[in-house]
Amino acid sequence: MIRLTDDPFEPGAELAAFCAGRTRSGAVASFVGLARGEAGAQPVLELESWAEFTLAEIEKIAAEATRRFDLHDVAVIHRVGEMAAGEAIVLVMTAAAHRREAFEACDFLMDYLKSRAPLWKKEHGPGGPRWVEPTERDLADARRWQP
Amino acid sequence: MIRLTDDPFEPGAELAAFCAGRTRSGAVASFVGLARGEAGAQPVLELESWAEFTLAEIEKIAAEATRRFDLHDVAVIHRVGEMAAGEAIVLVMTAAAHRREAFEACDFLMDYLKSRAPLWKKEHGPGGPRWVEPTERDLADARRWQP
Amino acid sequence: RGRPIGRPPHVDHRRMITVLLFGRLSDLAGWREQAIEPVPLTLSALKDQLARRWPRLGDALACPGVQAAIDKAVVRGDPRLAAGAEVAFMPPMSGG
Amino acid sequence: RGRPIGRPPHVDHRRMITVLLFGRLSDLAGWREQAIEPVPLTLSALKDQLARRWPRLGDALACPGVQAAIDKAVVRGDPRLAAGAEVAFMPPMSGG
User: Fold this and answer.
1) Are the C-beta atoms of residues B124 and B46 closer than 8 Å to each other?
2) What was the ipTM of the complex prediction?
3) ω into residue D38 within 30 of 0, thus cis?
4) Rounded to whole angstroms, how far apart are CA atoms A107 and A118?
5) Buried b (16+ CB within 10 A) or exposed e, B100-133
6) Which of A44, A77, A98, A99 has the highest number of chain B CBs within 10 A, making it the mutation to test binding with B?
7) CB-nearest partner of A26 from B30, B36, B103
8) Is the pLDDT of residue C45 over 90?
9) The predicted structure's pLDDT at residue D4
10) Is D53 helix (H, G, I), strand (E, B) or coil?
11) What pTM, to 2 d.p., does this model score?
12) Which residue of A102, B72, D38, D78 is surrounded by the most CB atoms within 10 Å?
């Protein structure tokens, strides 16, 4: 399940639904990216997307993760638009037979979302708005998965 | 927060509480271990613990993870006693400034829980009950973290 | 954000292309979407044309991290452009 | 599960030790907790004594993965035992 949403979402409720009735997968790994900033500050972050193209590209990344790590299931929920401090930006969940595959798939998905999903992040800090680009570390992280 | 529980727990509700009001940590990683087996089968798994000693040892492992990965927060909830297919055995959650630390800490905690926490797992399969011991892979996974 | 410029009501969409900008590129240009006519021959000719009219955008488009997509497919090199095409310029992506 | 054996009501706990077994060790022995008296001199003497009475437990205790804890502290080698001590034998751990 891949979803882009303009509205806040609750990672706990999503994890509950993702785990429910799962008797075949021994392992569910997840990652939540939260908007950092002073409590109450709004917006602290703005994410621009390109509607269906963004969704389609994230679906490709999820399909690649499923294939590489033999996942039973995968979910990506990505917030777009403006968000406040403490709100969830992204939630990735993976289900697999064993923990290693679930962890690595989650790690892979986050690395690819950081630098290969058509999303553009603008931070609203004390010094004004600033477009974020992937750091050297983000790019190096993504390269780890290349064959 | 480290907790052992005889009763079923809901990982989604725990994640919701763990994320709530968190404006300083950009990253929350989590892992849920689920009891695999035929739906309805009960028990599929039995976990023996040694009360306060088990809790104290898991607290040491969590403190080590906090130190090594510069965590803002960590939680481990471990089910003990008998459980049914699909129920959560363990939930690990880590909060850090960035995703790499949160992921690695989660991975480390699971590796150590698998082979260094005073817990003993008995599987109730079609062939009768069987005590589980860490696999070669589990032991190799735990050795990855040695200095 | 700027509205498309020079797009009279009688315009024939088959004789133009649509350019989309994302992230900091649209901030630099002052618009997100622009109709361009007549249709430039190739992607590089389009970039030259944009650079003449919006110099800061032109500089940004020359950066190695900027990708182009024609009709939602990422392209490399200098493909020819057809009338009606939608050309998107995307700076380095930063989700997650 | 077996109850402690040979523990008459007049017993003096300061003259015995308590042995705890976990995981498959208690299945092999048929008990989880046992009072042992008189107090064996060392950990290896205790193991020998247990092995004589419960041979399958004795074999299991000789496996390299089995750890011993005295008063909830894991010990190595062959420490001396004091009266009142609680000695736990733990097979390889398997949580998570």
Assistant:
1) yes
2) 0.87
3) yes
4) 18
5) bbbbbbbbbbbbbbbbbbbbbbbbbeeeeeebbb
6) A99
7) B36
8) yes
9) 47
10) helix
11) 0.90
12) A102
